[in-house]
Amino acid sequence: MKKLAKQVPAQLKSRKLWLSVIAAFVSFGNAMWDWGLTNEEVGTVVLPLLAYIGAEGIADTVERMK
């Protein structure tokens, strides 16, 4: 339990976590509150964030395999 308690603050500092939260917020926010963004505009914001998250995930995997 103590190990998990020490990991949580470090995980909350993760760029991948916050970028995924932002991507979800933009996508769901536009759908729920009708911000007037088209699907293309939402994709313009969300897709680069998801690409970065994927690239960082691959880099993390390669780093752990060494």
Oligomer: single chain
- How does the overall form come out from the CA principal axes? flat
What structural class results from the helix and strand content? mainly alpha
| Secondary-structure element series | HHH
Instruction: For the record, give the distance between the C-alpha atoms at the N and C termini, rounded to a whole number.
Output: 28 Å
Query: What summary fits the major beta sheet?
Result: none
The percent range for helix content is: over 70%
How many strand segments? 0
Number of separate helices: 3
Topology (SSEs and partners):
Layout: H1 2-12, H2 15-33, H3 39-65
Helix pairs in contact: 2-3
What does this 3D model show about the protein?
The chain starts with a helix and ends with a helix. Helix 2 packs antiparallel against helix 3. The longest helix is centred in the C-terminal third of the chain and has 27 residues. The chain has a domain of 31 residues. By secondary structure, it is an all-alpha fold.
